[in-house]
Amino acid sequence: MRRRKFLKYCSGILGSVYATILAVPALGFLFSTLKRGQQKERTYRLTRLDDLEPGVPQRFTIIDQRVDAWTKYPAGPIGSVWITKGQDGAVTAFSSTCPHLGCVVDYVPGDEEFFCPCHAASFQTDGAVVGGPAPRGMDELKTSLKKVRGEQWVEVEYQKFETGISEKKAIG
Ligand code: FES
Predict the structure, then answer these.
(1) Does the beta carbon of 134 sit less than 6 angstroms from any atom of ligand 1?
(2) pLDDT at 140 over 80
(3) Residues of the signal sequence (predicted)?
(4) Mean pLDDT for all residues in the chain
């Protein structure tokens, strides 16, 4: 009787160990697949520095392959950024995604402001909110200059952020 109990106990433990051995790779696969769907920041070489007019923001589309949990889509637009070269040559970049609800923010040259056509949020050229419902300023992106065959190119780390909240919180 005792022996039978002991064997039952041992087979229960072996069953649990076996189930764990099977579950760990399966969960790893599931989490890696779901994680693949999240777009992390990536660096994009977008323009030559000399092609930017000082003080005038220019919009660039980010083209990349979109990958969700199960599917790889062909390369296409995944977002866009506003890049400005200052009079001193320093470069800044903002995501064109409105931090209110995600519409594409435009630039109004006459007013020298960014403007979102969806609910009329407006932003200064440094990204700060001027008016409207946006809970924070435009999301600034990291930039760097890279010399390629004697020319300076602007590279931007593109990243998406949560909308509708005051905190700048990266997605992915
Ligand atoms: S989405 Fe831009 S103001 Fe609402």
Answers:
(1) yes
(2) yes
(3) none
(4) 87
